[in-house]
Write a structure and sequence with these properties.
The protein is an alpha/beta fold. The protein is built from 10 helices and 10 strands. The chain has 2 domains: 160 residues, Rossmann fold (3-Layer(aba) Sandwich), CATH 3.40.50; 105 residues, Rossmann fold (3-Layer(aba) Sandwich), CATH 3.40.50.1100. The longest helix has 15 residues. The protein binds pyridoxal-5'-phosphate (PLP). The site of pyridoxal-5'-phosphate has 17 residues, from helix 2, strand 7 and helix 7.
Length: 290
Protein backbone atom coordinates (compact mmCIF):
# COMPACT_ATOMS: atom_id res chain seq x y z
CA UNK A 1 0.00 0.00 0.00
CA UNK A 2 2.85 2.33 0.81
CA UNK A 3 6.16 2.13 -1.00
CA UNK A 4 9.20 1.05 1.04
CA UNK A 5 7.07 -0.26 3.90
CA UNK A 6 8.52 -3.44 5.38
CA UNK A 7 7.23 -5.75 8.08
CA UNK A 8 9.07 -5.02 11.31
CA UNK A 9 12.20 -7.08 12.01
CA UNK A 10 12.66 -8.75 15.40
CA UNK A 11 16.11 -8.35 16.93
CA UNK A 12 17.28 -10.41 19.90
CA UNK A 13 19.27 -8.51 22.51
CA UNK A 14 22.53 -10.10 23.56
CA UNK A 15 23.77 -10.53 27.10
CA UNK A 16 20.70 -11.81 28.94
CA UNK A 17 21.52 -15.23 30.31
CA UNK A 18 18.26 -16.81 31.32
CA UNK A 19 15.83 -14.76 29.30
CA UNK A 20 15.03 -14.18 25.68
CA UNK A 21 14.67 -10.44 25.09
CA UNK A 22 13.47 -9.58 21.59
CA UNK A 23 12.95 -6.13 20.18
CA UNK A 24 10.20 -5.43 17.66
CA UNK A 25 11.81 -2.79 15.47
CA UNK A 26 8.84 -0.68 14.43
CA UNK A 27 11.35 2.12 13.97
CA UNK A 28 12.56 0.39 10.80
CA UNK A 29 9.32 -0.12 8.87
CA UNK A 30 9.56 3.05 6.78
CA UNK A 31 11.89 6.05 6.47
CA UNK A 32 9.27 8.60 7.61
CA UNK A 33 6.06 6.85 8.67
CA UNK A 34 7.79 5.08 11.49
CA UNK A 35 6.94 3.31 14.66
CA UNK A 36 3.54 2.62 16.11
CA UNK A 37 2.01 5.64 14.37
CA UNK A 38 1.58 3.92 11.01
CA UNK A 39 -0.45 1.07 12.55
CA UNK A 40 -2.60 3.59 14.37
CA UNK A 41 -3.25 5.58 11.21
CA UNK A 42 -3.82 2.76 8.75
CA UNK A 43 -7.51 1.92 9.35
CA UNK A 44 -8.33 5.58 9.88
CA UNK A 45 -6.94 6.45 6.45
CA UNK A 46 -8.86 3.53 4.94
CA UNK A 47 -12.08 4.65 6.67
CA UNK A 48 -11.69 8.16 5.29
CA UNK A 49 -11.06 6.77 1.84
CA UNK A 50 -14.09 4.50 2.04
CA UNK A 51 -16.26 7.49 2.92
CA UNK A 52 -14.78 9.48 0.04
CA UNK A 53 -13.25 12.02 2.39
CA UNK A 54 -9.94 13.22 1.05
CA UNK A 55 -8.82 15.39 3.95
CA UNK A 56 -7.56 14.21 7.35
CA UNK A 57 -7.58 16.63 10.27
CA UNK A 58 -5.77 15.91 13.51
CA UNK A 59 -4.27 17.61 16.55
CA UNK A 60 -0.97 17.83 18.33
CA UNK A 61 1.83 19.84 19.90
CA UNK A 62 4.57 21.44 17.83
CA UNK A 63 6.89 18.44 18.24
CA UNK A 64 4.27 15.71 17.94
CA UNK A 65 5.30 12.37 16.41
CA UNK A 66 1.64 11.89 15.53
CA UNK A 67 1.52 15.14 13.52
CA UNK A 68 4.76 14.14 11.79
CA UNK A 69 3.50 10.66 10.89
CA UNK A 70 0.06 11.90 9.79
CA UNK A 71 1.66 14.41 7.42
CA UNK A 72 3.93 11.71 5.98
CA UNK A 73 1.18 9.11 5.69
CA UNK A 74 -1.21 11.62 4.09
CA UNK A 75 1.37 12.45 1.47
CA UNK A 76 1.99 8.80 0.62
CA UNK A 77 -1.70 8.00 0.72
CA UNK A 78 -2.59 10.93 -1.52
CA UNK A 79 -4.88 12.73 0.90
CA UNK A 80 -4.76 16.25 2.23
CA UNK A 81 -3.86 16.78 5.87
CA UNK A 82 -4.59 19.56 8.33
CA UNK A 83 -2.71 19.76 11.61
CA UNK A 84 -4.30 21.75 14.43
CA UNK A 85 -1.30 22.80 16.49
CA UNK A 86 -1.43 23.82 20.15
CA UNK A 87 0.06 27.27 20.75
CA UNK A 88 1.34 30.10 18.60
CA UNK A 89 3.28 29.83 15.39
CA UNK A 90 7.03 30.18 15.94
CA UNK A 91 9.26 31.00 13.01
CA UNK A 92 11.39 29.55 11.68
CA UNK A 93 9.34 26.35 11.92
CA UNK A 94 10.91 23.60 14.00
CA UNK A 95 12.05 20.48 12.05
CA UNK A 96 8.84 18.57 12.82
CA UNK A 97 6.50 21.27 11.54
CA UNK A 98 8.78 22.10 8.63
CA UNK A 99 8.65 18.45 7.62
CA UNK A 100 4.86 18.42 8.00
CA UNK A 101 4.49 21.56 5.87
CA UNK A 102 6.78 20.18 3.19
CA UNK A 103 4.71 16.99 3.17
CA UNK A 104 1.69 19.15 2.33
CA UNK A 105 0.09 19.48 5.76
CA UNK A 106 -1.79 22.70 6.39
CA UNK A 107 -1.09 23.99 9.89
CA UNK A 108 -3.67 25.81 11.99
CA UNK A 109 -2.49 27.29 15.28
CA UNK A 110 -4.88 27.58 18.19
CA UNK A 111 -4.38 29.03 21.66
CA UNK A 112 -4.27 26.67 24.58
CA UNK A 113 -7.81 27.36 25.76
CA UNK A 114 -9.35 26.67 22.36
CA UNK A 115 -7.11 23.63 22.05
CA UNK A 116 -8.59 22.20 25.21
CA UNK A 117 -12.04 22.44 23.57
CA UNK A 118 -10.86 20.93 20.32
CA UNK A 119 -13.24 17.99 20.32
CA UNK A 120 -16.36 20.11 20.84
CA UNK A 121 -18.96 20.48 18.08
CA UNK A 122 -18.52 24.28 18.07
CA UNK A 123 -14.79 24.09 17.48
CA UNK A 124 -15.12 21.49 14.74
CA UNK A 125 -18.00 23.37 13.09
CA UNK A 126 -15.84 26.47 12.82
CA UNK A 127 -13.11 24.37 11.20
CA UNK A 128 -15.59 22.80 8.78
CA UNK A 129 -16.76 26.28 7.73
CA UNK A 130 -13.18 27.09 6.90
CA UNK A 131 -11.93 23.82 5.41
CA UNK A 132 -15.01 21.92 4.24
CA UNK A 133 -15.23 18.19 4.75
CA UNK A 134 -12.57 16.30 6.69
CA UNK A 135 -12.06 13.09 8.67
CA UNK A 136 -11.04 13.69 12.28
CA UNK A 137 -8.37 11.64 13.99
CA UNK A 138 -8.14 12.49 17.69
CA UNK A 139 -4.99 13.80 19.35
CA UNK A 140 -2.31 11.14 19.56
CA UNK A 141 -4.33 9.01 17.10
CA UNK A 142 -6.21 7.50 20.03
CA UNK A 143 -9.30 5.74 18.71
CA UNK A 144 -10.70 2.26 18.13
CA UNK A 145 -9.49 2.05 14.53
CA UNK A 146 -5.99 2.75 15.82
CA UNK A 147 -6.41 -0.14 18.27
CA UNK A 148 -7.42 -2.34 15.30
CA UNK A 149 -4.26 -1.44 13.40
CA UNK A 150 -1.98 -2.41 16.29
CA UNK A 151 -4.10 -5.51 16.94
CA UNK A 152 -3.62 -6.61 13.33
CA UNK A 153 0.13 -6.17 13.70
CA UNK A 154 0.20 -8.19 16.94
CA UNK A 155 -1.66 -11.05 15.28
CA UNK A 156 1.12 -11.41 12.69
CA UNK A 157 3.79 -11.85 15.40
CA UNK A 158 4.97 -15.04 17.16
CA UNK A 159 2.50 -15.85 19.94
CA UNK A 160 4.87 -17.54 22.36
CA UNK A 161 5.93 -14.44 24.31
CA UNK A 162 5.36 -14.46 28.06
CA UNK A 163 5.38 -10.68 28.17
CA UNK A 164 5.20 -7.80 25.73
CA UNK A 165 6.41 -4.40 26.92
CA UNK A 166 5.61 -1.03 25.33
CA UNK A 167 5.79 2.69 26.06
CA UNK A 168 2.45 4.43 26.66
CA UNK A 169 1.36 7.91 25.71
CA UNK A 170 -2.37 7.56 25.16
CA UNK A 171 -2.32 3.79 25.79
CA UNK A 172 -3.76 3.04 22.34
CA UNK A 173 -0.80 0.91 21.31
CA UNK A 174 -1.07 -1.10 24.53
CA UNK A 175 -4.79 -1.64 23.91
CA UNK A 176 -4.02 -2.94 20.41
CA UNK A 177 -1.35 -5.30 21.72
CA UNK A 178 -3.73 -6.58 24.40
CA UNK A 179 -6.35 -7.24 21.77
CA UNK A 180 -3.96 -8.89 19.31
CA UNK A 181 -1.94 -11.17 21.59
CA UNK A 182 -3.33 -14.16 23.41
CA UNK A 183 -4.61 -13.47 26.92
CA UNK A 184 -1.81 -15.69 28.27
CA UNK A 185 0.71 -13.07 27.21
CA UNK A 186 1.09 -10.34 29.79
CA UNK A 187 1.17 -6.84 28.33
CA UNK A 188 3.26 -4.35 30.31
CA UNK A 189 2.94 -0.63 29.66
CA UNK A 190 5.44 2.05 30.66
CA UNK A 191 3.55 5.38 30.85
CA UNK A 192 5.72 8.36 29.95
CA UNK A 193 3.37 10.88 31.52
CA UNK A 194 3.27 11.59 35.23
CA UNK A 195 0.63 9.75 37.28
CA UNK A 196 0.06 7.24 34.52
CA UNK A 197 -2.64 5.32 36.44
CA UNK A 198 -5.26 7.39 34.64
CA UNK A 199 -4.49 5.29 31.57
CA UNK A 200 -6.23 2.19 32.98
CA UNK A 201 -9.64 3.69 32.33
CA UNK A 202 -8.61 5.06 28.92
CA UNK A 203 -7.25 1.67 27.89
CA UNK A 204 -10.30 -0.20 29.17
CA UNK A 205 -12.49 2.19 27.21
CA UNK A 206 -10.48 1.57 24.05
CA UNK A 207 -10.68 -2.18 24.63
CA UNK A 208 -14.49 -1.92 25.00
CA UNK A 209 -14.92 -5.65 25.72
CA UNK A 210 -14.47 -6.63 29.39
CA UNK A 211 -13.06 -9.99 28.38
CA UNK A 212 -10.10 -8.16 26.89
CA UNK A 213 -9.48 -5.86 29.86
CA UNK A 214 -7.20 -8.48 31.42
CA UNK A 215 -3.59 -9.43 32.04
CA UNK A 216 -2.09 -6.06 31.37
CA UNK A 217 -0.37 -3.75 33.80
CA UNK A 218 1.05 -0.24 33.87
CA UNK A 219 4.36 0.36 35.64
CA UNK A 220 4.09 4.03 36.43
CA UNK A 221 7.40 4.57 38.18
CA UNK A 222 9.45 4.92 34.99
CA UNK A 223 8.06 8.29 33.85
CA UNK A 224 11.07 10.23 35.14
CA UNK A 225 8.92 13.08 36.37
CA UNK A 226 6.93 13.61 33.18
CA UNK A 227 6.69 13.85 29.44
CA UNK A 228 9.68 15.86 28.29
CA UNK A 229 11.97 15.41 31.29
CA UNK A 230 15.47 14.30 30.36
CA UNK A 231 17.48 13.55 33.50
CA UNK A 232 21.20 12.86 33.03
CA UNK A 233 20.90 9.26 34.23
CA UNK A 234 18.34 8.53 31.53
CA UNK A 235 20.45 10.18 28.82
CA UNK A 236 23.47 8.20 30.02
CA UNK A 237 21.50 4.97 29.82
CA UNK A 238 20.41 5.82 26.26
CA UNK A 239 23.98 6.49 25.14
CA UNK A 240 25.25 3.23 26.61
CA UNK A 241 22.35 1.19 25.29
CA UNK A 242 22.72 2.56 21.76
CA UNK A 243 26.47 1.92 21.76
CA UNK A 244 25.98 -1.65 22.91
CA UNK A 245 23.00 -2.66 20.77
CA UNK A 246 23.05 -0.25 17.82
CA UNK A 247 19.42 0.59 18.45
CA UNK A 248 18.60 4.31 18.48
CA UNK A 249 16.47 5.49 21.41
CA UNK A 250 15.01 8.91 22.25
CA UNK A 251 14.37 10.17 25.80
CA UNK A 252 10.60 10.70 25.58
CA UNK A 253 9.33 7.17 24.89
CA UNK A 254 11.76 4.44 23.97
CA UNK A 255 14.54 5.55 26.34
CA UNK A 256 12.16 5.21 29.29
CA UNK A 257 10.86 1.93 27.91
CA UNK A 258 14.24 0.25 27.58
CA UNK A 259 15.45 1.65 30.89
CA UNK A 260 12.39 0.07 32.51
CA UNK A 261 13.02 -3.28 30.83
CA UNK A 262 16.64 -3.19 31.94
CA UNK A 263 15.64 -2.31 35.49
CA UNK A 264 12.94 -5.00 35.65
CA UNK A 265 15.43 -7.63 34.52
CA UNK A 266 17.91 -6.48 37.18
CA UNK A 267 15.16 -6.85 39.78
CA UNK A 268 14.28 -10.38 38.58
CA UNK A 269 10.80 -9.27 37.58
CA UNK A 270 10.77 -11.95 34.88
CA UNK A 271 11.09 -15.67 35.58
CA UNK A 272 13.96 -17.72 34.18
CA UNK A 273 13.58 -18.71 30.53
CA UNK A 274 10.74 -16.32 29.87
CA UNK A 275 10.47 -14.81 26.44
CA UNK A 276 9.92 -11.06 26.31
CA UNK A 277 9.12 -8.79 23.40
CA UNK A 278 9.95 -5.10 23.71
CA UNK A 279 8.08 -2.92 21.22
CA UNK A 280 10.39 -0.25 19.84
CA UNK A 281 7.73 2.27 18.84
CA UNK A 282 10.03 4.59 16.86
CA UNK A 283 10.10 8.24 17.81
CA UNK A 284 12.95 9.53 15.69
CA UNK A 285 11.74 12.15 13.28
CA UNK A 286 13.92 11.73 10.25
CA UNK A 287 13.61 14.94 8.30
CA UNK A 288 14.28 14.02 4.71
CA UNK A 289 12.80 16.80 2.65
CA UNK A 290 13.80 20.12 4.14
C1 LIG B 1 3.23 8.18 20.10
C2 LIG B 1 4.31 7.29 20.63
C3 LIG B 1 4.06 6.37 21.67
C4 LIG B 1 2.75 6.33 22.41
O1 LIG B 1 1.78 5.54 21.81
P1 LIG B 1 0.32 5.47 22.42
O2 LIG B 1 -0.41 4.60 21.48
O3 LIG B 1 -0.21 6.88 22.39
O4 LIG B 1 0.39 4.97 23.79
C5 LIG B 1 5.08 5.53 22.06
N1 LIG B 1 6.30 5.60 21.48
C6 LIG B 1 6.57 6.48 20.50
C7 LIG B 1 7.94 6.53 19.95
C8 LIG B 1 5.59 7.36 20.05
O5 LIG B 1 5.88 8.25 19.10
Amino acid sequence: MIDNMISPPIQTLQGYKNLVVDVLRLDLIHPTITGNKWYKLKFNLLAAQKNNINTILTFGGAYSNHIFATAAAGQFFGCKTIGVIRGEETLPLNPCLRFATNAGMKLVYVDRTSYRNKHTIEFLTALHEKFGEFYVIPEGGANELAVEGVCELAQTLPQDYDAVVCACGTGTTLAGLRKGFSLDTKIIGIPVLKNGEFLYSEINQLLTNELLQKNYTLLTKYAWGGYAKTPTELLQFITNFTLKNSIPLEPIYTGKLFFAVHDLIQQNYFKNHQKILVVHSGGHQLVVNN
